[in-house]
Automatic annotation (TrEMBL):
Signal peptide interval: none
Pfam families the UniProt entry points to: HTH_1, LysR_substrate
UniProt lineage: Bacteria, Pseudomonadati, Pseudomonadota, Alphaproteobacteria, Rhodobacterales
Any GO BP: DNA-templated transcription
Assigned keywords, A-Z: DNA-binding, Transcription, Transcription regulation
Molecular function, one GO term: DNA-binding transcription factor activity
Family: Belongs to the LysR transcriptional regulatory family.
InterPro entries xref list: LysR-type_TF_proteobact-type (IPR058163), LysR_HTH_N (IPR000847), LysR_subst-bd (IPR005119), WH-like_DNA-bd_sf (IPR036388), WH_DNA-bd_sf (IPR036390)
Residue span(s) of domain HTH lysR-type: 8-65
Protein's name according to its UniProt entry: LysR family transcriptional regulator, glycine cleavage system transcriptional activator/LysR family transcriptional regulator, regulator of gene expression of beta-lactamase
Length: 313
């Protein structure tokens, strides 16, 4: 039978959306300016319509079922699309404004070098740039697209790798004097960013070292802070190539196990900067134009030039 799927009432989905986020009928009711009983009735209506149990009561709290967790994912995306559509057609003075968020590192080391080219190609677009480290909420934070550091594991958005961010193991000469082989890293304080939860583990396995019990590690919110800690001799850091080469050229840091020891790591274990945009946003002409421009750039060319300059030095 090819009948169309009949969607449940929108009010029931709105109530579900609020309850799924708050895990509380009362808090959902406060958000919707109705009584908890009214919210409960809408949830019951939705469960009856879907013939699926969505919440389990546990004392005074409620917990979403597996079905509710799955449904909440899609309902959140749907309401975000509704909000974006309304915003686009009602804020007419801002229709040509594109809000791009990037990690601070990508903005400083890549994007700012290319903004003059962007302005030449798209002079009519009003670009607004923010630099939040964490993944933004596209609707709440009024962001059209974002550049995030990671491994490309984002779903329900258009995800495109812009440039890989391989790492160089670096430390001060004093720490390097204690490192004769990769396994010696286990006795060091290891520095990384909080987003790279398994990068050191991948590196140890690549080097043939069982991670085992490590001496300790310190995670930083951003790459710049981790680099400063490495320069201060707090531990062994993982630096991006152009930072590493600049610090090695100045004599402040060394690569105790060699500059190229991580060059042959598998691609899926090498992080990078990814451009993320909700697919619905690409229906907006200005967003689509910026997306095409971002994807078409050779963001790695600055890396190559810097590497050549370092080698000549």
């Amino acid at each position: 039978m090819n009948g169309k799927l009949r969607l449940p009432p929108l009010n029931a989905l709105r109530a579900f959306h609020a309850v799924a986020r708050h895990k509380s009928l009362r808090q959902a009711a406060d958000e919707l300016y109705v009584t908890p009983q009214a919210v409960g009735q809408q949830i019951k209506l939705l469960e009856d319509a879907l013939q699926v149990k969505l919440f389990e009561r546990k004392g005074r709290s409620i917990e979403p079922t597996e079905s509710a967790v799955l449904l909440a994912h899609y309902v959140e995306a749907g309401f975000s699309e509704f909000a974006e559509g309304v915003r686009r057609i009602t804020r007419s003075p801002y229709r040509d404004r594109i809000n791009l968020n990037t990690s601070p590192y990508f903005a400083t080391n890549y994007l700012l070098r290319h903004l003059s080219e962007f302005r030449e190609e798209m002079p009519s677009l009003d670009l607004r740039l923010t630099t939040m480290i964490d993944m933004p909420d596209f609707a709440r934070d009024d962001v059209d697209m974002t550049v995030q550091w990671g491994y490309g594991h984002w779903s329900d958005v258009e995800c495109t790798l812009l440039v890989r961010d391989p790492k160089v193991i670096c430390c001060t000469a004093q720490i390097a004097a204690t490192l004769r082989k990769p396994a010696d890293l286990l006795d060091c304080t290891l520095l990384d960013t909080v987003k790279s939860k398994h990068l050191w583990t991948d590196i140890f396995r690549h080097l043939g070292v069982e991670p085992g019990e490590q001496h300790g590690s310190i995670g930083f919110d951003d790459a710049a802070s981790m680099r400063r800690a490495t320069l201060q001799g707090i531990g062994v850091g993982l630096l991006s190539p152009h930072d590493a080469h600049a610090d090695m050229r100045s004599g402040e840091l060394v690569a105790p196990l060699g500059r190229d020891i991580l060059d042959d790591m598998p691609d899926d274990q090498v992080p990078g900067f990814y451009l993320l945009v909700p697919r619905g946003h690409l229906r907006v002409q200005g967003v689509a134009a910026l997306h095409r421009w971002m994807v078409s750039q050779d963001w790695g060319r600055d890396l190559i030039r810097k590497d050549h300059a370092t080698n000549r030095g």
